[in-house]
Structures are given as structure tokens and as C-alpha cells.
Amino acid sequence: MLDIELIRKKPEFVKERLSTRDKTLPDLIDEVLELDKRRRKILTELESLRAERNKKSKEIGLLKREGKDTSIIEKEVREIKERIDSLEEELREVQGKLRDLMLRVPNLPHESVPIGEDEEDNVEVRRWGEPRDFPFDPKPHWEIGEKLGVLDFERGARLSGSRFTVVRSWGAKLERALINFMLDLHTSKGYEEILPPHLVRPEILEGTGQLPKFEEDLYKCERDDLYLIPTAEVPLTNLFRGEILKEENLPIYMTAYTPCYRREAGSHGKDIRGIIRQHQFNKVELVKIVHPDTSYEELEKLTSDAEEVLKLLGLPYRVVELCTGDLGFSAAKTYDIEVWFPSQSRYREISSCSNCEDFQARRMNTRFKDSNGKNRFVHTLNGSGLAVGRTLAAILENYQREDGSVEVPEVLRDYMKADIIAPA
RNA sequence: GGAGAGGUGGCCGAGUGGCCGAAGGCGGCCGCUUGCUAAGCGGCAGAGGGUUAACAGCCCUCCGAGGGUUCGAAUCCCUCCCUCUCCGCCA
Question: Which residues contact A135 (CB under 8 A, 6 or more apart)?
Fold first, then answer.
């Protein structure tokens, strides 16, 4: 959520920043300003009426103790009350509308974010590693996986429909090895390992920004009013919601492995083959809760912590900075890490690292007491470290050999207790 | 799932319709004093919002959340959430 005071004081600035995302957003701000004005007008009037009522009610108490008649003054208060009631209803309506609107306004892009419309305008920041030269035609991961008996698409669909895959034998083992490897790496760098619930309340998703706008993308358990998490970012970031943290406890670093559940409502036809886009996939997530002064440094560190995974796995990648038009709803700035897929001869997203500044903190009401004793909103960051299914796919492709077997990356061999995955 | 108890400020805890934003204690901050592995005395201190040049003043709201009753609610009623105890069920 944006700071309403900022919108009031610098509406043109806010509109200019939002228009870099989407030209229609400034209209929302005009609506916000209008509602805010109405809200304050009602509030001022309402408060002076309440003050009057409070004063007179106190008088009634005093008069009654003296045994005096209070019928006239009671009638006055009753009249005031009627006006209060109708103003309160008006206020509730305006405030509800305002809140709903505010929850649908995305974060302001940071000034350093390149202006652009879509992913075409993202800016490559750096590359690491050399894509391997294959003496044969590299196969896509789904072919390799099926041939090795590690990806079973047919039975996955039988159980749950399209975009569900069964991972078997050495594939399951590789997936587990990856999860352990990633968690071990991150915890060695000071991230606390967390095992959060996978089902959360609606207000939790509102806290991180998935609700109310992206309801369609979520799986919901209707009878219990709970949602399956689309990413561990959701429970981790919300962990301290409503709390006032101590400044000396910042920064907080957390990591978690969870499955992620996404309806992929808007992506019909995209990435139909393989395991790039699934309704359920594993991810190791990184979340930081930090002092506002340090959040951009922390973003750089977070991104390099995610990159470290790919370096150790020996997978070539590049880092791109998302342009304003491609930025996620809650993010002020985002780096995507894209890994090399030889069969497609291109880099594909495997991690997304964002600084949300105080956008989520405001929604969750997570604050800290600064050295002056003032309560301020924290900044929150999140990044994949990494998407495990895509990592597995990338390993299958980048480490494939002509005979259809796949070499196990060196750092995983102890976890796997194997050097090679060969057809059964 | 059934029966019961309860949710008050950083913590503990009083408060059953008006003088309660809330006693008291602990902890915290400031000052004084004594003079020493600390005590005593005095003072200050919650959050959000409106008004405003103002982190001055004034005002409003907040005693788990949301509704309601009442001239007036922490106190009465309803719904929900959470915690605890007992029973049942269960990996």
C-alpha cells in the first residue's frame, strides 16, 4: 500500500511514477484523492459531533448524581446521536471504497528502474558462465526426463490434470538433493530456516499483495476460507505482521522450502511442454526484513546469494533488471535471474529478487522502533533461491550427454550418492 | 467434534455502565540524592487519526476483531478469531 500522505502531498510525483508502469494508473490516484478528501471532511464533522456528545454525556452523569432532571439534555444527545449514526455510515462507505482502491494500487517503481513496457525492455545487468558447446543436438528437458524415467507427464495428468507432473526415482532424488543443497547454502550465510504453513488466511495474502487483485491466480479452500500459498514469500514476509520489532533485531534473514501452488490462470498455451510452468512446484525462498536505509544494499546481496546457487551448480545465467512495465505489483525494483536452456537457446527465469520497500510492511503493519523511539515501517525483500523444478530442468538440459544420460553437478554428488543419471 | 475458562498498555495484573486511556507492580527513560557488585526519592513515558506552519495545543478512535444495546461501554448482548483445561478423534 502506498502512503496516503505521500499521495496527498505529491500527487503529481506519484502519478508520474505509476504511469511508467501503466498509463491508466494515474486515474486511480485521482479517485483516491477525491475519496480521501471526502473522508476527511466527514471525519472532521463527525469528530466534532462526537466531542459534543462526549461532553454532554459526561454532564448527564454529573447531573444524575446530583439527582437533577436530565430529560432535556438527553434529548439533545439523542439528536446528536442520530447525526453521528448517519455520518458514521457515510464514513464507513467512503472508507471502504478508499481502502479497496488503495489495495489495488501497485508500488512505485524505484527511480533507478529502467522505463519500459514489457519484458522486451528489461535490461541485462551481467552474465555468468559460458553456455556449453554441444557436439550433438541438445534435447529439451522433457524428452530427457521421460527417457530417463524421471519425469512422468502422463501419470501426472492422470492424477491431477495438465501442468501436474510426477517426478520419479533419480529425478525425485535430484529434486530433494537440490532442496537440501540450497537450504544448506543459505543457512550457512545466516538465513534462518523456516517451515511455514502452506495454507493461509486471506489477510495474509493481502499483506504481501496477492489479494485482492490476483484472486484468480490462487487455489482456495472455500469451506475453511484458506488459500494455498503461491510462494513461501507469503508466510515468511507476514511472519512478523502487526509487530513492532526492535531495531537491533534487524535485519532478519529467512529461507524456506515449500511447494508453491498457482492456478496459472492467464497463461493458457504457454510452456505447455515440460516442467517450466506447473500448478505445483518446489521453491526455496529467501526473505529479508530490513531497516529502510539498507534495503537496496540488501537487494544486491540477496540477488548474489541466489546467483551463488547457480554458480555452484555450474549453470550459465544472466541477471536482468526488470523495466517499469514488467515489475510485479508489490515490487519497487526487481532483478530476475535467468538460466540457460540449451534446447531453446535462451535464458529463462529461475529467480526473481525484489525490494518491496515499505509497500508490504504498510499492508501488514510491520514496524520497528528506531533510535529516536519512533515507529517506522520496515522494508521487505524476497527472492527465489531458487525455483527447484526449473533448476532440475536446467540441470537435465545443461548436463545431458549424447547417450541420454545426465551428469550430476559436482556439488550434488554427495547428496545424490551418484555421479551420473542413466536410463534404467 | 463436545464441555468449560479466558483474551486489558513492553510484561504481570486490577477494573461489571459515567469521575477509566485505564489502579498497582515489574521493566524502561530522565533528574536528584546517597556513594557503590546497589538502593532511595521525584518526574516522564502507549498506538492510530483529524485540525495545523508545527513531533505546540485542541479533538476523535483504540482494553483480541467486527457488529449491536444505551444519553453514555473495557464493563451488557451477538458473531468471529485466538489461548488454556478436560473429554473424544488422530499422523
Answer: A402
A349 carries an active-site annotation: yes
Nearest to A119 by CA among A325, A317, A349: A325
Query: A191 and A66 in one domain?
Result: no
| Residue A12, CB-side half-sphere exposure with 13 Å CA sphere | 0
Residue A113 maps to a domain: no
Segment A291-310, tens digit of pLDDT: 999 999 999 999 999 999 99
Interior angle at CA A26, CA A25 and CA A31, nearest 5: 100
The residue behind cell 553437478 is: A409
- Flag whether pLDDT at A136 surpasses 90: yes
Nearest nucleotide, CA A76 to C1':
B71
Here the CATH number for the domain that contains residue A414 is: 3.30.930.10
Determine the Cα–Cα distance for residues A282 and A373; give it in Å rounded to an integer.
41
Name residues 201-230 of chain A with a Cβ under 7 Å from nucleic strand B: none
The parent domain of residue A274 ranges over 119-421
Separation of A3 CA and B26 C1' (Å): 38
pLDDT, position A156: 96
Q: Are residues A31 and A173 in the same domain?
A: no
Domain termination residue (choose one: A79, A103, A127): A103
* Per-residue cell: A134: 554441444
**CB-strand contact A273/B, under 7 Å:** no
Mark whether A178 and A277 lie in a shared domain.
Answer: yes
CA-to-CA distance for A413 and A86, rounded, in angstroms?
71
Count of the separate structural domains present in chain A:
2
- ipTM metric: 0.85
How far, in Å, is the CA of A412 from the C1' of nucleotide B83?
Answer: 44
